[in-house]
Input
Amino acid sequence: MSLPLSDNFNKAFESKARLGIMSVLMVNDLVDFSTLKDLLQLTDGNLASHIRALEDLQYVTVNKQFVGRKPNTTYSVSELGKKAFNDHLNALENFLKSR
Amino acid sequence: MENKNYNPLDQLSDIRQLMERSSRFISLSGLSGVFAGIYAIIGAGAAYWYLRINIATRVRYDYIIENGGIKIDFLTFFILDAGSVLLLALLTGIYLTTKSAKKNNQSIWDKTAQKLLINMAIPLITGGVFCLAMLNHHLFGLIAPAMLLFYGLALVNASKYTHGDVRQLGICEIVLGLLSSFFIGYGLLFWTIGFGVLHIIYGIVMYYKYEK
Output
């Protein structure tokens, strides 16, 4: 099915993986790489590149910490990311209403 | 993964599914509630038999005491009785939840399971130690109400990390606990309703809602 995508739809969320990452981060404060990988069923490389894309847009913040001596990287959503996600949800809602 | 025509309805269902799956432990089996309820009723039945009372009897606690301490055979019976109910309920719950987690492709020990357990354990352990303190001070009449109250609070607290229905069950347990604290002597009856009957009802409701 082809849909005329409204301009309000955020291009960043046209990817299922990126929309998925944002969905998980919206309801969890800090999420690590392997949890995201399990939830979204993506390969390491694939997930890393999608996270990087969201990081470049400043939707996602990367937190690097050490647990003992092991580096532990967690991800969280930024204020800008929250706003972008909510705008996208509103656009989806409007689109479905206008059908 | 790139999809130019990512259908809005599919998007919404993906969002919803990921939000739920990443923040709530949805594999908690309703049947484990039913079994816990059955064990509780059998355990309470054993206690009624041991005390030689029936459901409507108001229990007086003074005969439990001998020479200023709790009768040892009485204490042994109750620890064995309550301990077996707890152990059986836990083992059945773990077994059924593992099975249901496999079906949902969810790990039994992921972040959501850990959050659920921690948030449940804090009020529950607090309540457990408090009940031991009351036992120590011979405040027998308030032990059943306290068990119901702390268990209810534990459920309300943990409900954010699993099916929302658990919150209602928690509120029912709290109401029952408060009621029972005004009717000292009928603790076993309230305990049987709270841990037996309510578990069975909620277990059946949740089983039909999520597992059928």
User: Anything to note?
Assistant: Residues 73 and 176 of chain B are 30 Å apart (CA to CA).
